[in-house]
Amino acid sequence: xxxxxxxxxxxxxxxxxxxxxxxxxxxxxxxxxxxxxxxxxxxxxxxxxxxxxxxxxxxxxxxxxxxxxxxxxxxxxxxxxxxxxxxxxxxxxxxxxxxxxxxxxxxxxxxxxxxxxxxxxxxxxxxxxxxxxxxxxxxxxxxxxxxxxxxxxxxxxxxxxxxxxxxxxxxxxxxxxxxxxxxxxxxxxxxxxxxxxxxxxxxxxxxxxxxxxxxxxxxxxxxxxxxxxxxxxxxxxxxxxxxxxxxxxxxxxxxxxxxxxxxxxxxxxxxxxxxxxxxxxxxxxxxxxxxxxxxxxxxxxxxxxxxxxxxxxxxxxxxxxxxxxxxxxxxxxxxxxxxxxxxxxxxxxxxxxxxxxxxxxxxxxxxxxxxxxxxxx
Length: 377
Prior knowledge:
Helix content: 25-40%
Number of helices: 5
Number of strands: 17
Radius of gyration: 41 Å
Domain Endoplasmic reticulum vesicle transporter N-terminal: 13-77
Keywords: Endoplasmic reticulum, ER-Golgi transport, Golgi apparatus, Membrane, Transmembrane, Transmembrane helix, Transport
Order of helices and strands: HHEEEEEHHEEEEEEEEEEHEE
Organism: Sus scrofa
Shape: elongated
InterPro entries: Erv, Erv_C, Erv_N
Family: Belongs to the ERGIC family.
Largest sheet: 13 strands, mixed
């Protein structure tokens, strides 16, 4: 009884076979079929290699949501300005909440040499080339996101030469923590003096002819400091052509959460619009000489996640390549063989031309083929 049930089960399974086996004696091979098979296998191999390279690659996924974080924001600063004496320059932040953040809360003033060493100049040229490429090809930002990791650094390298040149500039660097509202970070002449209506800078004792707001921004970022990330103002250098000159940077900051296979960080991206002009009250150009960075924060937060193709999707795409090429080449080979047979048969039929009819004397024609007579000797 068990054997009978087993035979019935096997017969049922055989009937469900979707891949019937054809005896080798019924299979006819041809040179054209072999050529098409070689082309098909070569195409499958190339597409499989390309698909595997796509499987190994990753891409960045961008998601947007409302920013609900109201904590303070860190401003990371690395400046050099040609105003030398530390008492002559003041840097602070004044936001829309009328909160003043003094430079003494996190910034350091140091004498420095404005000119770069040969190694530092090479670093700056490379950084400026990257910045120009980023403005033309925005997809390079994804490459920077994926390559960012904690051991990398885009900071200005230290001077390798022991120059005897005296310091001619003031280096301002450090971190400031500000409210997450629009504000104005500025560097101008004189230390800031707070008062009930805002604040002012004590610049009466500084000669106007000594003003020089030529500056270099080695680094400026918002939020968590992520080495390896290149920000829009990194490597920017401005040379003042006049003593009373104002440099303005209008910055729009976008909170960004970065999640890659190498790093996870809460940073901020930003875009910049630059403007500079000479202060001349007689000509109607009013204002204060200095460097002004007016920043505003976006209400949207961007989550950037590095994603990878899952293995099941790679396997499905691979099966589609193999099956699709087999089916397509089989159909193309069948159609081509059919067309060739039609053309070949037409030429064969064209070789048999009808024999000319022989007219009789009464006007009728004989359409029959003449019989061959045997000659007897």
